[in-house]
Recover the amino acids of this structure.
């Protein structure tokens, strides 16, 4: 053949695809968009890379975020209560503040002081607050570039929100990491720059700190199955921290149901004995090996902001099953199941047959 | 890629799992398209992430399931072009070349790399038209929808784009032998 064979297709197929990271980005996007968080500015964390290598090679001080150690840290300037700024929209964040540990790390570079204030890990995600202070007035475009990573996690792992406040910026970062066994996790953050529309100030900041997981009570094994119309929800177990309730459940679908229907998605709603209704957003679902149908899924989901006065918490399962008709409009229906009530004091559970489903009050945007 | 229209219809009416499955099927093509524009992994991942978010937020606005692929591709291209505008930085082709050559230094790979580089150096319009035609396998009509221009313009862009590639590479165009792009 004279000359080279030109093939755009072949050329593009040579581009290496980081499949795992793409999958993680997709899953993360669905997780994050399941909650309404639109008012605040939000940025997604870029995927973390080779985290453990970075940790071993680092000589920066590692702070175990225990209250004792934190007390030795220099007092840092505080721009209001960062958790409070973000708690208006997000249920349960104020409890996160109550149970969070002071980190108290502060570094200044090129006139920009970045401080890590508080951090908490509830077994599903690390949440920490930070402030940025500058001699110069910062406009609303100002934000930090460079994402925190969790040394224990791989892939893209969370999100950041920030708001301009007097004297600087207040921000909150979340890094997802579902591991109820981990006693603590290590956060590493090297902000690259303070970015504004008018210019970018590059600096030299580096933070490393450990966050202990809030104490879990022993998980309460539920092993309770409720069924309706060919769909079953099997409650596996529930675990409690001071700020969250994590529940694991499976949806199981009769193969015969999928002859008529295509998709099934089982979700939960929760209500305590005081009448408060809670969303139970899921952290993610997987298809277990040996499933009978493609719609058999295992879910974990988390309730945040449970009232401290609540004595019981009831989970109301419901599912949407849907299909697309041969011609015309898609078709869907909702089915509801018996509920499971958890006695938070006695740590027992019981079945509530034919329950009246609570309604979740939608927050106004 | 032809998708199950039922699954797309389900995604449009709010079935998040269906949309998730569809995005996973499209991820490689989207990423490679993004990469061809921005030329580095981190930015390509960011473009991909923004594409996914935009798709989740606006899938309900898609009227006809048949347009899913062109709709999604347009989002990706727009995000990539926005990223390029923001950065306005020079693309360092040598670095890309090194990375791929490390994996396999065969002559064929090097040739494909030349193609990728040459494609990357074309102006956005030619690059987009050629990628959509020969990588995404879109019809001229679909490309016209994505690029928001007349079908005749698409044909011109493909002809000229190919001519530029051939001139730069002095090669035989393989994709063309398999398919008439009209």
């Amino acid at each position: 053949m004279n000359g080279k064979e030109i093939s755009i297709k072949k050329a593009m197929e040579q581009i290496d695809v980081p499949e795992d990271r793409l999958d993680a980005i997709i899953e993360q996007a669905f997780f994050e968009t399941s909650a309404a968080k639109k008012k605040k500015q939000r940025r997604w964390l870029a995927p973390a890379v080779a985290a453990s290598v970075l940790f071993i090679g680092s000589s920066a001080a590692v702070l175990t975020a225990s209250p004792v150690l934190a007390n030795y840290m220099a007092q840092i300037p505080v721009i209001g209560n960062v958790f409070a700024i973000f708690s208006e929209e997000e249920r349960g964040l104020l409890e996160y503040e109550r149970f969070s540990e002071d980190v108290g790390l502060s570094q200044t570079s090129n006139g920009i002081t970045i401080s890590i204030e508080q951090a908490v890990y509830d077994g599903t995600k690390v949440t920490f607050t930070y402030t940025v202070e500058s001699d110069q007035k910062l406009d609303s475009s100002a934000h930090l570039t460079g994402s925190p990573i969790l040394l224990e996690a791989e892939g893209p792992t969370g999100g950041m929100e920030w708001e301009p406040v007097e004297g600087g910026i207040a921000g909150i970062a979340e890094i997802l990491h579902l591991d109820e066994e981990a006693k603590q996790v290590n956060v590493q953050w090297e902000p690259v720059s303070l970015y504004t529309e008018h210019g970018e100030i590059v600096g030299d900041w580096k933070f490393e700190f450990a966050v202990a997981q809030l104490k879990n009570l022993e998980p309460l094994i539920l092993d309770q199955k409720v069924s309706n119309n060919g769909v079953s929800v099997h409650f596996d177990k529930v675990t409690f921290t001071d700020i969250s309730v994590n529940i694991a459940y499976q949806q199981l679908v009769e193969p015969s149901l999928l002859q008529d229907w295509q998709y099934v998605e089982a979700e939960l709603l929760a209500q305590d004995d005081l009448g408060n209704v809670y969303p139970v957003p899921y952290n993610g679902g997987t298809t277990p090996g040996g499933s009978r149908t493609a719609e058999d899924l295992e879910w974990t989901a988390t309730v945040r902001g449970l009232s401290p006065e609540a004595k019981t918490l009831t989970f109301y399962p419901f599912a949407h099953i849907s299909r697309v008709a041969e011609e015309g409009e898609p078709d869907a229906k909702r089915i509801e199941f018996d509920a499971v009530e958890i006695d938070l004091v006695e740590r027992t559970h019981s079945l509530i047959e034919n329950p009246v489903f609570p309604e979740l009050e939608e927050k106004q945007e | 890629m032809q998708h199950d229209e039922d699954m797309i219809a389900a995604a449009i009416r709010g079935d998040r799992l269906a949309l998730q499955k569809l995005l996973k099927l499209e991820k490689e093509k989207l990423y490679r398209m993004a990469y061809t524009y921005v030329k580095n992994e981190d930015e390509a991942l960011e473009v991909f992430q923004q594409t996914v978010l935009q798709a989740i937020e606006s899938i309900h606005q898609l009227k006809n399931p048949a347009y899913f692929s062109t709709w999604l591709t347009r989002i990706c291209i727009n995000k990539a072009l926005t990223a390029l505008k923001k950065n306005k930085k020079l693309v360092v082709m040598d670095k890309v070349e090194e990375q791929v050559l490390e994996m396999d230094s065969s002559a064929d790979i090097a040739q494909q790399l030349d193609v990728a580089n040459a494609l990357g150096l074309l102006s956005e319009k030619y690059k987009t038209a050629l990628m959509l035609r020969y990588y995404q396998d879109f019809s001229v009509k679909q490309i016209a929808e994505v690029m928001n221009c007349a079908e005749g313009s698409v044909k011109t862009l493909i002809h000229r784009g190919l001519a530029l590639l051939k001139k730069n590479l002095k090669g035989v165009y393989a994709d063309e032998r398999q398919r008439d792009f009209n």
Notes: Chain B has a mean pLDDT of 77.
